[in-house]
Each structure stands twice: as C-alpha cells, then as structure tokens.
Specification:
By secondary structure, this protein is an all-alpha fold. It is built from 18 helices and no strands. Helix 5 packs across helix 7 and helix 15 packs across helix 16. It binds tryptophan (TRP). Tryptophan binds next to helix 1, helix 2, helix 5, helix 10 and helix 14.
C-alpha cells in the first residue's frame, strides 16, 4: 500500500474520533430523547450503556482498525482471510452510505436554520407558529434539497482534501469552537428565569418511568452517538499511528462524546422549561422550539437573541459536518484501497450516491410522503433500519469478532501496545471478560428487543 496517511498524534486522533461521535446525535437527538424518555433516569441508563456496551464495541472496532491499518473490508479480509467475515467489512460500507443519506438531509436543515438566524432572525414569538414554519420548510420541495446539496458538497470539499489536510485540519478548527459555542449557549440557557426546573429534570431521576423500550432507546442512542457498528470508528482508528495507546483514544472519545451530550442537554432543557414548553416534543425540539425560545428570551435585547441563535445553529452545522465526513471517509477509503480509485473520484461517487438517496429521504416529508416502507416514510425507514438493525448487528458482530474470532494474544497486543502500557495490562483481564461475555449478551438482547 502506498504511503497511507495517519493522524498527526493520538490527541488529534481523539479529536477526530470525537468529531465523528459528536454530532446531530448529541445536539439534536439526545435532548429530545431525554425529553421523551423521562429525563434523568434515561441519562443514567445512557451513561451505563456507554461504558458497559458501547466502549467494548468501540474498542473492538479500534483494535481491528489499528491492527490492520486498512479500510473496513480490507481489515476483515486481512484478519480472517477466506471467510464470510469480509461480508461484515462490506456491510460497514453500506451502512454509513444509508445513514449519510438521511443525515445530510438533517445537516441541510441546520444550514437553513443557520441562514435564517443570520439573515432573517427568528421573530416569531408564538411557539406554535415556529412549529408550523419548520413543518412547512421540511415538507417543501426545493429548500431542503438545496440545503442537503450544500451540506453534501461541504463534505466533499473536506474529504477530498485527504486525511491530514482535510479531515484533521477541519476537526482541529471545529471541535474547540464547538465546545466554546455550546458552553456559551449553556450559560445563556441556565441564566433564564425558570431554568432551574429544566436542571432538576436533568438531575433528579424517577426510576418508576423506566420501561424496556426506554432502556433500548438509551442503549441505541449510546451506539448512535458513538458512531458504532458501521465502521466509522474502525476507519479513523486505522489512521492512528501504530505506537499510540488506543485505550486512551477509546476512553477519550467516549468521555468527550458523553460530556458534549450532557452539555447539549443542559443547554437545551433549561431553555425549554424556562419557556414552559413540553420537553417531549420529539425530533422537532431543537428546530421548532429553540428558535422561538431564543427570540422570546433575549432579555428583551434583540441582538442577544440573534447572536445566541447564530451560535447555536453554527454549532449544529459544525457537529453535523465533523460526523458526516467520518461516514464519507469509511466509504471513500474502501473505494480508494480496494478498487484503486482516486480519492477525489471516490468522494464524488459517494456524493452522488448519498445525494440521490437523500433526495428521496428529503422528499419523503412532502411530495413523496405517501411512499411507505413497512409503514414508515423513507426518511424514518432509513433512520430506524440503520439505528435499530444495521448498527446493532454491526456492533454485535464486531464484539464477537474481537472477542471470539481474534486470538486473545492479538487483542492483548493491541490493547496493551504489546505490553508497553502498564495500566492497560492491569485492566486487560476485566476488559477481555466484558468483551467476551457481557458485551455480546447485552448487545444481543438489545438487538432482539428491537424486534419485539
Ligand atoms: N455519532 C454521530 C452523531 O452523534 C453520527 C454518526 C457518525 C454516526 N458516524 C456514524 C452514526 C456512524 C451512526 C453510525 O451524530
């Protein structure tokens, strides 16, 4: 293989992996899931799932990627030559493709909202009205398609520039900004009168609300948020230099992702409560209610409202872009390394494919809303099919692969840097036990429960 690129350092690798992990899942999905599923108790299950189930999957992907330094398909071919495992490598080219298609549509919405907050401002002071304007935007034909196209093209520009000068550079600029922006919004949000009810909602668990489906949603959310089961973590880990400590990369990524989700929750919920809005509003929460809250609650000073709205949607766009490029990369690397395509050609190919499928996802809110697959619109189908099915099966297969197919010695070598990292050596036993038994059973149960 000719001169495969690597990330500059492990810190940068963590930044990029956190960039993949931190996305619409944290800033758009997490707050509304918390709101729909009962607040603090959901958060506690979410945190447990991150460390007991998600980290083992994440480490499995990292071990496989870092050991082979190849794309998902190549990695499986190298570690299990001549077996059906290469199908898992192929699956993890197809899954990010489907996720990307609808993810770019939501990325497009956030571009539209950023545009509106810069050029038009959110002057509507009636929550209901804002809801309908969001609804009429996403169900219209051209606006969302244009924004989906712009979002996808931004990804093309970044990914075609390469791992170092595209992905690494973009994450280096965006990620620190993202944290600054969300902290700024959080401070604004918790200083609103009436915000404390939202803080209580995030902190005081009511376990009587916990049901099976809520546990499954919390686990599913932790997988989605950490970009698991579809090869994006695998591909980024394959760009980590051989000598680096991958336990640090894995734990660092998980910690950043979790902290960011919590920050986003504390940025959104207090504002929602301060405005007296129902926290269980669902997927429209940040698009329908936040602009309204910002508009109404700028302490009566219009420019404050505008600045907060611009910062918020800027953060959403950044978060979405750093995640989308990781999905691009998983597919692009496959075409470059397995099909000898140039990076630019591969990126453009992925663009057209995901743009085309995304077109239908976008139209499924309006002109094509009558088209149903298993009683779901195309957008919802792609979302449910990937997050409930492809990601869990991918995650399950990755832990089974690392826990049962790879030799213990191989896993040990990767996990401990060949014995170089003392702490890793100490905790290897516990990790391996979780990897081999707890994680496959846990993920398996979640997988089956999705069908019940
Ligand atoms: N984790 C990202 C988010 O929270 C989205 C994402 C990136 C993703 N790559 C993925 C989700 C792979 C599933 C699979 O928004």
């Amino acid at each position: 293989m000719v001169n495969r690129e690597t990330f500059g350092s492990n810190k940068i690798a963590i930044l990029a992996m956190a960039g993949s992990a931190i996305g619409l899942g944290n800033i758009w999905r997490f707050p509304y899931m918390v709101g729909q599923n009962g607040g603090a108790a959901f958060i506690i299950i979410y945190i447990l799932s991150c460390f007991l189930l998600a980290v083992p999957i994440l480490m499995s992907e990292t071990i496989i990627g870092h050991r082979t330094h190849q794309n998902t398909f190549g990695a499986m071919k190298t570690l299990a030559p001549g077996t059906k495992w290469s199908l898992l490598g192929l699956l993890t080219v197809i899954s990010p493709f489907i996720i990307l298609s609808y993810y770019s549509v939501v990325g497009g919405w956030s571009i539209d909202f950023l545009y509106k907050s810069v050029f038009e401002g959110f002057k509507i002071t009636d929550g209901q009205l804002q809801g309908t304007s969001f609804g009429s935007f996403i169900s219209s034909t051209w606006g969302p398609i244009i924004c989906h196209t712009i979002f996808s093209l931004l990804c093309v520009v970044i990914v075609s520039a390469g791992v170092k000068s595209g992905i690494e550079k973009f994450n280096k600029i965006c990620m620190p900004m993202l944290f600054i922006l969300i902290i700024f919004i959080l401070i604004f949000s918790i200083s609103l009168p009436g915000a404390s009810a939202g803080i209580d909602y995030m902190l005081k668990p009511d376990f009587s609300k916990i049901t099976g489906p809520i546990v499954a949603s919390a686990v599913g959310q932790s997988f989605f948020s950490l970009s698991l089961g579809v090869g994006t973590i695998l591909i980024y880990s394959s760009y980590i230099k051989s000598k680096e400590n991958i336990l640090n990369s894995g734990i660092g990524t998980t910690a950043f992702d979790l902290i960011f989700a919590l920050l986003a929750g504390f940025a959104v919920m207090p504002a929602v409560f301060a405005a007296g809005i129902e926290p269980g509003a669902g997927p429209g929460l940040i698009f329908e209610t936040l602009p309204f809250i910002f508009a109404k609650m700028g302490f009566g000073i219009p420019w404050i409202s505008s600045v907060v709205a611009i910062f918020f949607f800027l953060a959403v766009v950044f978060a979405a872009l750093t995640s989308a490029i990781s999905m691009y990369e998983a597919i692009v690397a496959y075409f470059v390394e397995e099909k000898n395509m140039s990076r630019r050609k591969a990126t453009i190919l992925v663009f057209f494919g995901t743009w085309f499928l995304g077109l239908f996802c976008s139209l499924s809110f309006g002109p094509l809303s009558h088209l149903k697959i298993m009683n779901l619109s195309l957008f919802d189908f792609c979302d449910k099919f990937t997050s409930n099915f492809l990601m869990t099966i991918g995650g399950l297969l990755f832990v089974i692969f690392a826990g049962w197919k790879m030799k213990k010695q191989e896993v040990w070598e990767e996990f401990t840097g060949n014995g170089k990292y003392k702490l890793n050596c100490k905790i290897f036993g516990v990790f391996y036990f979780i990897l081999k038994f707890i994680a496959p059973i846990g993920v398996g149960v979640v997988f089956i429960s999705n069908f019940i």
